[in-house]
Design a protein that fits this description.
The radius of gyration is 24 Å and the shape is globular. It has helices spanning 3-9, 23-35, 57-69, 121-132, 151-165, 173-179, 191-197, 201-204, 239-253, 273-286, 331-340, 349-359, 396-408, 413-419, 425-437, and strands spanning 15-18, 39-43, 71-72, 78-84, 87-94, 102-103, 109-112, 115-118, 210-215, 229-235, 256-261, 264-269, 296-300, 304-310, 366-370, 373-379, 441-444, 451-454. By secondary structure, it is an alpha+beta fold. The strands form 6 sheets. A 6-stranded mixed β-sheet has the order 10-9-13-14-16-15, covered by helices on one side. Strands 1-2-5-4 form a 4-stranded mixed β-sheet. Strands 3-6 form a two-stranded antiparallel sheet.
Length: 455
């Protein structure tokens, strides 16, 4: 990602701005990035993207050494200077680490949105277990050679990456493959490389395919215990092709209706397309590819769509924090599919999946986790849009807020102030907090990006 894009993107899951040289703050973000998906630190840039222009190389080196001395074990970094019209900025690249990193005082931090969050004891144990399993993506695939890559798929990836970055990639293809973890320095294909670019990934990693089944009715069996499906597809190929083919099959099986708004006829699908694609892409990105004998399963019933991903939740992620937190089991696969355009923004997909389902009149997605699988279930039963059964103890402002969410899908603090202009901002904040506590609204995002949707 270019410096201009980093400035435009702002602080987030994989980007941090540090306006001043601060050893302690730098150490915290180094540990948080290394324990998560990695990231980029821009030193000399304010939270608003303003360059202070007063950095000196020798000062940066001293602060970096001090920050690294607080990391246990030390975090690997690469830094360079970017000259801007306002002065120099230091960009510090922090790769994801296969080790668990702590600060000198014993704290274990993880990146959570745009902040560095300390983990509790149980979370630390879960993260340590994930780290100790090694980096399976970078393991060499036995028997595979560079000839097992599909050059057309590689060319497509490069074109998509150039389009996203808005600049050409000039370095040799082989060098790029090493950089993204698709091959080793010796040119041997890795697991990530075969899954992203292989001509036939399932020939080396059979469990990397996908099975789609369309069941008649609401159960996995038909009358008399006989198989009750009307269609079964086994889908294979590199991950980008796998996602595209699976989406095409699901789309063919989805019922499509129509509504008329004014003089315009709009088609509506059985499920919101984004919610389906997000569930599908998440399964491909985050499944545990070490587990053999089981592929991703997409099960379509009359009343629901289930996407089942082999492997439990990664890292410290739980059903309680899955909306707010982000951790990738397969960061190189995630990065590859991000460049392809299958992932819009790290850490925001679950939020939007919930929002899209609710806005379409469906219940929110349900999530089920076991030690060896994770299931997303989307229900297609539209809720009745009659008078909501709101609690009588609500004040008039809260009733107006709930009606606004029903009509628009969400509400922000600014929008709430617009419909209640004569009420203080603090009173309105407490109103929304009360609705969240009652379980009627769900708070999504943080700080200026916060908004509320129906829970």
């Amino acid at each position: 990602m270019t410096f201009a894009h980093l400035l435009q993107k702002g602080p987030g899951q994989t980007v941090e701005f540090l306006p001043e040289l601060d050893t302690d703050a730098l150490a915290e973000v180094l540990v948080a990035f290394a324990n998560g998906d990695g990231g980029t630190v821009l030193i000399g840039v304010s939270a608003q993207g303003e360059v202070n222009g007063s950095l000196l190389d020798e000062d940066v080196e001293g602060v970096l050494r001090g920050a690294l001395s607080q990391c246990r074990p030390p975090v690997r970094t690469e830094w360079r200077q970017v000259d801007t019209p306002q002065g120099p900025v230091i960009t510090l690249e922090v790769p994801r680490s296969t080790e668990l990193h702590t600060l000198a005082d014993g704290r274990v931090l993880i990146r959570s949105g745009a902040r560095n969050r300390p983990l509790g004891g149980e979370e630390v144990r879960h993260l340590a277990a994930t780290k100790s399993s090694g980096d399976f993506e970078l393991e060499v695939v036995a028997g595979a050679t560079r000839a097992d890559f599909d050059d057309d798929v590689i060319a497509e990836y490069i074109a998509k990456r150039e389009e996203k970055q808005r600049r050409p990639i000039t370095r040799p293809v082989e060098e790029l493959l090493v950089e993204i973890g698709a091959t080793t320095e010796d040119g041997d294909p890795t697991v990530a490389g075969i899954l992203l670019f292989g001509r036939n990934p399932q020939g080396f990693i059979p469990q990397s395919g996908l099975v789609f089944v369309r069941f008649e009715g609401t159960e996995a069996r038909g009358p008399g215990g006989l198989p009750g499906y009307s269609r079964r597809e086994e889908i294979s190929g590199p991950l980008s092709r796998l996602i595209e083919a699976a989406w095409q099959v699901i789309w063919e099986e989805m019922r499509v209706g129509a509504v008329v708004k004014g003089l315009v006829r709009e088609e509506t699908s059985e499920y919101p397309p984004f919610a389906v694609r997000e569930a599908l892409v998440n399964a491909v990105c985050h499944r545990d590819y070490r587990l053999s004998g089981r592929r991703i399963e997409v099960r379509m019933f009359d009343d629901r769509l289930e996407v089942i991903s082999p492997g439990g939740l990664p890292g410290y992620i739980t059903l309680d924090n899955i909306v707010e937190e982000h951790f990738s089991r397969n960061p190189r696969i995630v990065a590859g599919l991000f460049q392809w355009g299958f992932i819009e923004e790290l850490g925001l997909g679950i939020d939007r999946m919930i929002e899209e389902m609710l806005q379409a009149g469906h219940p929110a997605p349900t999530f089920r986790a076991t030690p060896y699988s994770f299931t997303v279930s989307l229900a297609n039963v539209r809720e009745r849009r009659g008078i909501p059964a709101w609690q009588r103890s609500m004040n008039e402002r809260q009733l107006r807020a709930m009606q606004y969410v029903r009509e628009h899908g969400s509400i922000t603090n600014r929008e709430y102030r617009a419909i209640c202009p004569d009420v203080s901002a603090e009173t309105l904040r407490l109103d929304l907090a009360d609705l969240v506590e009652r379980g009627l609204l769900l708070k999504v995002g943080a700080k200026k990006g916060t908004y509320y949707i129906l829970k």
